[in-house]
C-alpha cells in the first residue's frame, strides 16, 4: 500500500511539473500572472469539456466578373472543441506507440534467439553490424522503407502499404515498422551485452561444467534473466519511441497527437493532452518495475 501511494504521489508530481512548466512563461510578467496562468491550466485539466484546439482553415474567394478571373486563399484560425475531435489522433498515436513497442520486443527477442544459434565467429560480425545500424538516424530507416515501397510499386504494380497518410486513410503498417526499428536495435544490443555479462556468472559456469551446451544455457537461463534486466531500460525505450514518433508523424503526414502537441495550441489543451499521453506509459513503467521486483524476490538473484 505504501508503494502504491508513493507511485500516486509521483504521478501527481509529474502532472504538477507539466502544468508549472507550461505556466512558467507567465513569470516574465510577474508572479501574479504566473499564479493566474497556473489556475487557468488547472481549471482546464479538471474540466476537459471546456477545452479547444486550433485548426488552420483555408477558404477560396473569386473576384467579381467581369474582372480578371483569379483565386485567392484566405487562411484563418478556427477553434474546435477538443473532445471528441482529438480522440482519433490520440488513439492513432497510442496504437503506433504500443504496437511499435511490442514489435520492437518481438524483433529483438527473435534476433537474440537467432544470435544464440549462430557460430561464434559470426557473432563478432553481428555485433559490428548492430553497432553500424545503431549509429544510423531514424530518418534513414524511414526514407529507406518508404523508398522501397515506392520502388516495389513501380516495379510490380503492387502496393505493399501506404507510403504516407491521406485524408481518408492513415498509414499504419509502415509507421509501425519504422517506429520499432531503432528501439528494437537498442533492445537487441542491450540483451546481447547482458547475456555476455551473465555468461561470466557462477551459475552459468556451473551449468557449463555439467556439460550443457552454450545454446541450452543461453536459451533456458541467460535469455530469461536478461529479459528481466531489459525492463530496467524501459523508460529509455519509451523516450526513444516518443522522439521517433514526432519524426514519423511528420514524414508520413499522419494526423497524430504529436502533431497536435508540436503546433501552436492553447496551453490548457497542451497540458491535458500531455498528461493523457503520459499516463499509459507511467502505468507501464511502474507495472514493469513492480513485476521485475517481484521476479527477483521470487528467484533470489534471478538465477535459475
Q: Which terms would index this structure?
A:
flat, 7% strand, mainly alpha, MetI-like fold, 304 residues, two-stranded antiparallel sheet
Structure characterization notes:
There is one protein chain. By secondary structure, this protein is mostly helical. The chain has a domain at 87-263: Orthogonal Bundle (MetI-like fold). The chain is built from eleven helices and two strands, in the order ααββααααααααα. A two-stranded antiparallel ribbon has the order 1-2. Helix 3 (87-117) packs across helix 9. The protein is flat, with a radius of gyration of 25 Å. The two termini are 30 Å apart. 23% of the residues are buried. The mean pLDDT is 81.
